[in-house]
Amino acid sequence: MKRLPSSRWLAAGLLGLSLSLGAQAAIDTYEFKDDGDRARYRTLTEELRCPKCQNQNIADSDAPIAMDLRREIHRMLGEGKSDDEIVDYLVDRYGDFVRYNPPVNARTWLLWYGPWLMLGGGLGVLALIVLRRRRPAAPSAAAASGNPGSDLSAEERARLDQLLKNSDHKSSDHKNSADHKNSVPKNSAEQGSADNTKADR
Fold first, then answer.
1. DSSP codes of every residue in 11-69
2. 24-98 fold
């Protein structure tokens, strides 16, 4: 029973050792002729994108292809190649994707101007929607001809005329009764006050 804790310590130690060896394997150690080449190497690996990783440069990526590219850049620097020659070599092999800032040409035109075209298209659609909502509804053919009842059938027109006549009679009857009520005093007290007013004059 006492062997169990010691075997756990042994397993933990082996795990830690294997992890530390794996971490050391990911670190590149290259020899350079001078500090200028070391600075160029650092700049190139930070400015070039890993072909496998979406948004990670060659310097930070642990992907096997990034390790190969770092080794290739170191080899070309040792051969005395310029930065442009190294970048052109990598672009020929992996395309403009390896550059974080690709040049504007026929292959990258959509990459540079595509977002602006999409933004312009979206604004155009939005403008059309707003203009259509602000525009008043087109008048019907009957209203445009000046005769709003022209699209009614004969039966509907007769019913409409009857309703209009009835409403005219009711409104005139109501007006006459209102005028009559205003002209006749409502009670004798009002009649007396009207007589007193005449007498005072």
1. HHHHHHHHHHHHHHHHS-----SSHHHHHHHHHHHHHBB-SSSSS-BTTT--SHHHHHH
2. Helicase, Ruva Protein; domain 3 (1.10.8)
